[in-house]
């Protein structure tokens, strides 16, 4: 699995457009189609929202190339909030759009979301 | 009433009022999801409409005994419907952007000229205002929107457009068609036959045909439309 790029940034809704833009470019590099690329952007945004709702102050977003595009979104700082009511929709949306979704916890709370688009090499 | 009780009651009664109540309670899910798909060339209102229909379908199908929350169930259903819509939309045959732009520019120019002069402008005047060739303008204006092959072919006929597409023809069929075309062409005037020969035999443009025949391109355009209509009617009669 080849690492394409890592973005580290403070979490905030004002960063979403820039992150979506970068995701679109990397999805194109990975050879995803237009629809997949748009879905990937939605998944990145949803993952960041999930982390924001859990109180993380920053995020580390890593893109890997492995035939398709594998994205890992990890929270940084203390994730000490319980999440929001609409998180359930975000999780369901991630599962509906991405080819596979995994989550990892830290101290019993969600701290990382990974998903893939496209075939694994 | 909690979610499980609400859906259990609806499954028993199928009461429309209760269904509407459920739809209203979960309408925010449709709104949230529609917003998430904005920016892909479809208006938010259209997305909301698709999401709302999917929500209603989901309410009809949801089985509360499956142990899944309704919002978990309905999210992929709505997302799926929206994605299907994007897929279907991208399969449609679209007119080239240049044609679409020219078509709307022509409409605007015609209105402007009419407002300035108080009379309907000619094709030439519109073409001049837009700085395009008359033939190009006519083609753009006549370019229609997408038509379904399943649409009925005519008011009286039962068949669809699809039924009218010929199968791969064999030589006998071609021979038969040639006789019918020859008979139909015989009904045309000398000028009309000459025009058909230049336009469809030599495959010249309307402007080139007009030059060869010493008439205006508009004249050829009108003649072409009239001749095609005449040929269509004659062929229809001969095949009946």
List the topology elements.
The complex is a heterodimer of chains A (121) and B (240).
Chain A: E1 2-10, H1 16-29, H2 34-53, E2 58-66, E3 68-76, H3 87-97, E4 100-106, E5 109-117
Antiparallel strand pairs in A: 1-2, 2-3, 3-5, 4-5
Chain B: H1 3-13, H2 16-36, H3 44-61, H4 70-91, H5 97-117, H6 123-130, H7 134-142, H8 161-164, H9 171-185, H10 190-201, H11 206-213, H12 217-239
Describe the structure.
The complex is a heterodimer of chains A (121) and B (240). Chain A is α+β, with helices and mostly antiparallel strands and 121 residues long. Chain A has one domain: Heat Shock Protein 90 (2-Layer Sandwich). Chain A contains 3 helices and 5 strands; from the N terminus they run βααββαββ. The longest helix of chain A is centred in the middle third of the chain and has 20 residues, at 34-53. Chain A is globular and about 35 Å long. The model of chain A has no long low-confidence stretch (mean pLDDT 90). Chain B folds into 3 domains: 3-90, Four Helix Bundle (Hemerythrin (Met), subunit A) (Up-down Bundle), CATH 1.20.120.1810; 97-143 and 151-164, Arc Repressor Mutant, subunit A, CATH 1.10.10; 187-239, Arc Repressor Mutant, subunit A (Orthogonal Bundle). Chain B is mainly α and 240 residues long. Chain B contains 12 helices and no strands. Helices cover 72% and strands 0% of the residues of chain B. In chain B, α2 (16-36) packs across α4 (70-91), α5 (97-117) packs across α7 (134-142) and α9 packs across α12 (217-239). Chains A and B meet through α2 and α3 of A and α2 and α4 of B.
């Amino acid at each position: 699995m080849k690492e394409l790029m890592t973005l580290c940034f403070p979490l905030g809704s004002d960063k979403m457009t820039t992150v979506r833009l970068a995701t679109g470019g990397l999805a194109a590099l990975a050879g995803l189609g237009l629809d997949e690329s748009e879905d990937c952007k939605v998944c990145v945004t949803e993952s960041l929202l999930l982390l924001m709702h859990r109180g993380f102050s920053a995020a580390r977003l890593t893109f890997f190339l492995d035939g398709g595009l594998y994205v890992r979104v990890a929270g940084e700082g203390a994730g000490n909030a319980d999440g929001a009511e609409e998180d359930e929709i975000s999780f369901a949306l991630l599962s509906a759009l991405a080819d596979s979704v995994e989550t990892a916890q830290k101290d019993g709370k969600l701290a990382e979301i990974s998903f893939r688009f496209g075939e694994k090499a | 009433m909690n979610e499980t009780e609400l859906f259990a009651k609806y499954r028993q009664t199928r009461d429309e009022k209760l269904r509407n109540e459920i739809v209203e309670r979960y309408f925010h899910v449709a709104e949230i999801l529609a917003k998430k798909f904005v920016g892909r060339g479809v208006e938010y209102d259209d997305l909301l409409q698709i999401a709302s229909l999917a929500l209603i379908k989901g309410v009809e199908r949801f089985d509360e005994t499956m142990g899944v929350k309704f919002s978990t169930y309905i999210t992929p259903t709505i997302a799926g419907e929206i994605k299907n819509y994007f897929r279907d939309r991208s399969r449609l045959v679209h007119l080239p952007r240049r044609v679409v732009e020219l078509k709307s520019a022509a409409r605007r120019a015609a209105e402007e000229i009419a407002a300035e002069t108080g009379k309907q402008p000619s094709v030439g005047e519109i073409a001049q205002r837009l700085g395009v060739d008359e033939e190009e303008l006519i083609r753009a204006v006549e370019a229609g929107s997408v038509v379904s092959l399943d649409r009925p072919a005519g008011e009286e006929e039962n068949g669809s457009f699809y039924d009218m597409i010929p199968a791969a023809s064999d030589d006998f069929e071609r021979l038969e068609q040639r006789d019918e075309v020859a008979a139909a062409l015989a009904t045309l005037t000398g000028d009309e036959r000459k025009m058909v020969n230049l336009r469809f035999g030599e495959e010249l443009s309307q402007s080139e045909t007009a030059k060869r025949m010493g008439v205006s391109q508009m004249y050829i355009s009108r003649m072409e439309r009239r001749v095609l209509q005449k040929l269509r009617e004659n062929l229809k009669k001969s095949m009946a």
